[in-house]
What does this fold into?
Amino acid sequence: QVHLVESGGGLVQAGGSLELSCAASGRSSTTYAMGWFRQVAGKEREFLATIIWIDGATYHVDSVKDRFTISRDSAKNTVYLRMNSLKPEDTAVYYCATKRERTHAGVHYYTYASEYDYWGQGTQVTVYS
It folds into this structure.
């Protein structure tokens, strides 16, 4: 069992920045990848970014790749999401998730929520204009 705890959300003015953190505990040594998603009430969970734990390779969805950056600190078992130039439409609950094992051969980034095994409780980000 892996336990994920997000932090860093809050209220920010448009154009501002936030950095979300997600600390993993439990059997985090089995992590293959971690990802960030967000969800607005009534909508599907949206993929934002993912990072391969062993080598730090990253992939960001096109809609945020110029503003958001995923990173990790392996020693702390923590993944981060740096968000710059925030917009009101970025308002959502942000979730981190972990995938235990590699399930695709070759270079592959996991972008579907169903591909992840454990989820955090979410942290609210509200951007006001």
Notes: The chain has no helices and eleven strands. The CA atoms of residues 39 and 45 lie 5 Å apart. The chain has a mean pLDDT of 95.
